[in-house]
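Record 1 of the preview.
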Amino acid sequence: MQLVHPFDKLVLWSEMRLDGWKAMKILSRLRDAINQQDCRLCGGTATRPICAACDDDLARLPAARCPVCALPSHANQPCGRCLSSPPAYDSTHATLEYAFPITRLIQAFKYEHAVGLAATLANYLDEAAAPTADWQLDLLLPMPLARARLAERGYNQALELARVLVRHRRLALGVGAVTRVRHGPPQADLPWRERSRNIRGAFTAQRRFDGLTVCVIDDVMTTGATLDEMARVLKAAGARRVVNWVVARTLPRPEAHLP
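->
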């Protein structure tokens, strides 16, 4: 005999005994109680990994930013760097500045096996891309990890983000379409000026992308060197456009003196 879960009994009882409005109110409270958890940032009670107050406190990027690299720019015009040295990618969409406290959440997701945060972080990707025309995409492509890094970490955080977006947006997912063939030092461990050289030749395309608009998914964009190299490989394999969707964007430090 199949057992009935107590919550299912409550649902059935409410539908039979109460009018629709009262039933929905009771069920909403029950779901909130079941989903109750501690906010990952402040420790307060929440019904999702980040409470509403902490979400409001996260540093959003300025509204006026470069459409190519997502750094602050006057009147949403391409910045001087993208005009003088255009990257291989065509546009970048991000919502958050990579600053405390979102750093804690992304680092837990990336390095502490907190894979359950994928849906929460993917919401910020949705927030970044929703007002744009870049929803006309042919393929979502998670930033690949080198085999050694994947074995060490156990999962690819970019793939976990992409899986959430695929379910929500019904877009094609290109797992394995580009692979990382060279395993160098982590980009986060290197000075900004050395990152382009470290990532050069790290990717290879496993198929053609002729005429396609490809969206590359990643968690953080710092100098953009990794995304630039990925876009270069995609364009060489025939991609028409390459769009970046990232959760958070690092703003350059004044002392970095980037070209």
